[in-house]
Amino acid sequence: MEIVRSQRKPSIDASPTPTLSLYRSAPPLEVRLEDFELYAIDRLRVLKGISDGLARGKKPEEMENLVRELWKTNMRHQDPAEVMNKDIISHFVLRLVYCRTEELRKWFLSMETTLFRYRFRLESLESQRMLMTEFQLPYKALIHAEYETVKDKLVQVARSIGQSSNTDTIFFKVPFEEVPDLVGSRRVFILKGFAYVPMNQVVSLVVTQFRSNISKALVLTNRKWTSTIKEQEKDRLTPIVEALSNSYLGPDYTQPNESAEISLKDIDQLASNSFPLCMRHLFDKLREDHHLKHGGRIQLNLFLKGVGLKLDDALAFWKEEFSKKVGAERFDKEYAYSIRHNYGKEGKRTDYTPFACQKIISSTPSVGDHHGCPYRHFSEENLRAALNKMGVGGRQQDEVMDKVRNRHYQLACTLTFEAIHGTSCDTGINHPNQYFSNSQKIRQEKVTSVES
Amino acid sequence: MAKERIPNEGDEMQIDGGVCEERVARAIPEGFNPDYLKIYYGKLFPYADMFKWLSYGNDGKHPACDHSYFGRREFSFTLENDIYIRFQSFGSAKEMENSIKEKCPFKIDIGPVYSVDPAKRHAYAQGGNNVFAPVERELVFDIDMSDYDDVRYCCSGADVCLECWPLMTIAIKVIDTALRDDFGFNHILWVYSGRRGVHCWVCDSKARRLNNEHRAAVTDYFHVYKGGENSLKKVTLAGPVLYPFLARSYTDVLKSFFEEKLLRSQNLLASEERCQKILGFIPDESVAAELLDKWQGNRRSSISKEDVNVVRWDQLKHMLQSGKQKIQGLRRCVEEIVFSYTYPRLDMEVSKHMNHLLKAPFCVHPKTGRVCVPIDPNNCEDFDPTTVPTLSHLLEEINEGSMMMESNNEWERSSLGKSIEFFRSSFLQPLLKSCKEEMESAYSAKIKQSKNSLSW
Predict the structure, then answer these.
(1) Residue B432 and residue A414: Cα distance in Å, rounded?
(2) B32-221+347-393+420-444 architecture in CATH?
(3) Is the ipTM of this complex over 0.90?
(4) Could you tell me if residue A101 is inside a domain?
(5) Residues of B identified as active-site
(6) Would the CB atoms of B228 and A180 count as touching at under 8 Å?
(7) A92 with A114, same domain?
(8) For burial by CB atoms within 10 Å, which of A73, A418, B73, B168 has the most?
């Protein structure tokens, strides 16, 4: 891909392929620098929209509509011949933007794969077949004799996921490892290690392939970026690329604000004033049980780190509680390591990022666990009790519950925030640490306005 | 396992007759202590079998053998005083034996096979490329009785008894069948964890090479019981029919264990509180209220000699499954209750990641002194955790044995003998046979390919 400042020469590439690209290689196109950035921002809007949709726990059908709308709104072009190019160019620009760290790659890979999945589902059967050929998938359709032996089970699986089974559906028999998502959600029949994938689920096979291609490509792009592109383009593309990733992802709260350092003696006060429900629940449970299971410890510890609790204070804090239950000695032996680990002081010494709402909402708490997002993981009764405890009752509570029923967990949290602080929160809540810092800001403003 | 029950200490003393009196005083006290453990590692621990197993055929003379294989496996030891040492590795069976005998670990954990010798990982890390990564690991499952505390009333926490152990039997049956029939795995080892649960090792080469995403898929396939402490309903079975694996588990295992065993042994419907808990599964409050009314009636008039739990359960089923309850959700309720009280609860994280450690078979549990013996999945109903050989019992056997004759294979005569024999004949031999076959076919394919490439 070449980037030029001058007017773009129209490139004529009229192969009658499906409208969906596999992004195998960067196209030999010329791109105006303005388009380079504008296209990327448009695509980013689509990916951000998908990310929000997933965080709200939207169902597949809702996601399909969402993706269709996002694509239509953002990826149009006045010149129809240019639509495909915009798709490809924006993908490759963002690949450059998001290749640079493990965290960025993971996000991009996950969003692009989701985008591809739903765009594939929107394609006609004919072009779906063409795409499968393009991927060179080595699978043959199930032959009739074998189909007969498993027919009953295939019908049963289709019915169990609420689909009608159609006798002329084509099935592909593939090793179960090729369709992990279908196996994990029990949407496909498996026998002796093989999954029987119906044509209407074939998207999973293709997505596995797509995902693995993009994943490898991102690693290669990263290598190229660090070895050559970054330096070569330092006056031209590098600033754009760096700005693109910052402007949209928002702060990740890895480093606490310098001004915001908290001390152990204030922590109970802060917890009841400014912790979001997910953290306050963990905090209260820890004080009550003197113990939290693994998932809860990570979620709370990273949050506290982001809030500005120093490692030594964090160790003292956890030790105080855990030693009441397991003794100080066992704490030092079994638990202190992971506290330090979260702070990047052990193991591979990664400074772990506090969890954002999306990650917390998609976690799967199990027996004895208290982590996760209360708006998603609590029963209605428990959530109402928790809200009462926070002082959110009556009509406000009903409004929160209403959002929960529609699976708008972050909006429910935002409403809780607004009810407690008595002000509106236009940005919405995307991160527990954001909840905390917004809350602190408001409280400090109130204090100063009272004083003056 | 328990078909031939291990005689209790009283019986043995009878055998010894004359010295009976004297031996009462010298009988080895139950429990665990490092000195016993030393003798156990010295005389009974099956080093050769463990080495054979974890070599997967790579210890042979075949040209396709990878002689570095066993040496790239991570072991980790928990020593006395909870000192934990990770990334141990051994070049040979003898090296492993010597190290275990010398360090006398309270617990031995087995980790993955890494790309390079884990003991030398730092040296490789200096090479710049981060080549130290897990490349193979058995697919493992860990099922722990303490995760069932909300559905058992006989014990809680780390305790188990014969009343709640059937929950583990159910787990073995359900998971084992699905691993074999659905996923096509053949070499599966079930092991008693020594106190309150069971471990499962799936050792097929295909299983060992699954990546984390594949492991997560298998684990999620089994994941039915969901939700943390704060959600009410933990099992939701949607859809007009059950998925084949769930339907099979229900009809073949869960239903009969629930109705014939747990319902009575756990007294699941014997008190008001327990009744309320089960009624909580019924979304239609009027139906629940009607049932409660009935149940309060039959508590007063002891209508029959039949067990109250059974009577009440039949009433519940009748009410929910009778023709007039057309609503899908109500009919499905019966199954949801059974699944909630019986379906296996896995420790998901253990199974999802290659680099998770799991306690080795034939370890001795430091709290109970019981040996982590294999369990035969085909006869898992017969397994009785309370008769599993204990360290002190084994030592008594050794003491008696040594009076009679000297032998190199102490374990053959001990009550551990049966377990080791089972490990060999039902697990190790078939496993090594298929390792050999795979190795040969991979090798001949390679030869063929290199010939082809020469003749282009």
Answers:
(1) 59
(2) Alpha-Beta Complex (3.90)
(3) no
(4) yes
(5) 74, 142, 144
(6) no
(7) yes
(8) B168
